[in-house]
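Dear colleague,

Following up on yesterday's call, I've attached the two folding results inline so they're easy to grep. Please treat them as preliminary; we haven't cross-checked anything against experimental data yet. The first protein's sequence and structure tokens come first.
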Amino acid sequence: MPKQLTNDQIKQKLQEGRNYKQLYYDLKVKLDVVVSQNKQLKAENAQLRQQFMAVIEAQAARIEELEVMVFGRKPKHKLPAQTKLRLSSKGVASSYRRPIPPASAITGEEYHGINECHRCGHGLTNKVEAIRYEEDIVLSALDPRIDKTKVTKHTVETGWCSHCGQYSSAKDLRGQVVTLGPAVKSFITYCIVQLDLSYSQTQDLLIQLYSFSVSTSEIVNILDERRSNYLPFYEQLKNNIRAGPAHLDETRYPIQSEQRDGYAWTMASSIGTDVVYLLADSRGKGQAKSLVGNDYDQVGITDRYLAYKNLFTSGKHQVCWVHLTRTARDLSRMECLSQAKREHADRFYQALSQVYATLRNFQAEPFNQVKRQGQAEGLLEQVKFLCQPDKFDPKKLSNLKAGILEYQDCLFLCLTIDGIPADNNKAEQELRKLVIKRKKSFGVKTMKGARTMEVLHSVCQSLYNRDKANLLKNLHNLVLATVR
């Protein structure tokens, strides 16, 4: 039989129960606080993790872009080792055969007769003649009878004018006693600017072809002199381009004296072949402004670089569609993205490319203002729907969508105005010349050299676009016309 508790023991047990109950409530309150804090920390952790993953994704995208720029994109599927390129056996004869020269171009004739068989020595009968032509160039260095250079001795008469109290001469006597003629100056300009030869390569070429030597300082002076000669034509090129729609673009072009900072800007005519360059130490809007001028009221075709945003008159700015689709395509190929996000980016790229393809089809149709306006409005609605934010958007895709919507008024000007292209390819093609020059020469040394090269490249490239077969002739004649 259990022992009966006393009143004091019962009171003690009741007190302990009350204490345990109070302790339970205190612990429960603490537990609720800890649970609440844990939930808050989990939410903060999830948010920070999401932000961290977004940063990682953005940095990985930048690293991948840099790797592609430096090393190129790796092919997904390698070609088999036995795969070889084979020339087609079928083709147009004119594509690999030279045309027969006209009779006026023939400068000499040779007759090749044969009387005996070259195998057995027996006499030949029923002989016929076949006509063959051989085209070549005249290299004076290979023939000692041909003069490689010409030297003109100038005897200049001077006399005293008693009325003016000064001497007068029949020819300007300033400068050195021996100077270079205009032909070799044109040839040097052509080699340096158009052929992208270095100073030493140009010097070697003159030695090998003409036994003609020039110093580096003479080449520098020749280029500076030609800049002065071509400067009026350079300004004329600007005016020609400003008279109609123009393409603008820019790229890195180091200037050594400016800590290798520098940019090459280009402005190319949309309806003509003229192009001008500007080499500057910055990528600011002022450089683009100096190209188009203060009163430019034509349409400008550019990418989405901020310097072009407010450069043109309201309603006169067309954004390049190739840049938009190319950015979307690169996003869809980024290996740093998850499979789901890559597929999502690829769907956006395919949809955007379809809009661009439809745009090109509309441009191929005869121009009708009312019809084109309706087409532009329909495509704009598609773009707005396509660029709505999505939870699967990576950071770069989200930025691209926001940028497209920001420039929505500049997307379809190419439809509503006749003759406006939907891309900025022409400016990029014209910049290719300077990009190749940059890779060979690493830019220019000084700002003075930049001022010289921008004029020379503009003149040479514009003349090349007009008539590449007679570039050197026209380059030389332009100086003769200026000097006269």
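Below is the second protein, in the same order (sequence, then structure):
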Amino acid sequence: MGRIRWALALAAASLAVAGVARADDALWRRVASEEGIVVFTRHMNSAGTNPLAWDETGQCRGEHALTPKGRAQAAALGELFRSRTIRPVVVSSPMCRCLETARIAFGDPVVDPALRETASGDAARSREFEVAATRLLVRHRGRAPLVFVSHRPNIDQLTMELIEEGEILIAKVDESGRIDVLGRTRLPDR
């Protein structure tokens, strides 16, 4: 009886993995074929002393930087798109860990200073971010999907979804900037 239960559990796990793979494939087909798609992702694995530090000069002094794991994750993100021949438009926070993620994955992104992390921001700072992000989402929505490289609190503010490191949130954005989340997937483990 133990072998039968084990075999049934293994079969159920295999079916669950197959179901997740089909769901991921369906999401990626939408990314490749539908207009108005936006892919939200956090910066990849980073380290440093102050996650809210931002060096406006672009020299990254005091900012978190990607770790070797983060650089490998960023390369995997880019490969997800290249392997599907998807060429996105990329928008990024100006903070170095986001810029490095975007550049490794895709090349130079569109950047706006208002897209920096909002975790410590007051209501006015949060509103500044939301207005700038919505403006960029609407401006760059179109046939090519938009990849938005940002920070967890910023993505949460726009989508009402918390995403973890290595997760990818796929959504549609309409002409008014309203975001409809379609699903989520993960980077492959490296």
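For the second protein, one point worth flagging: The helical segments are 2-33, 68-82, 96-106, 123-140, 152-159.

Best wishes,
A.L.
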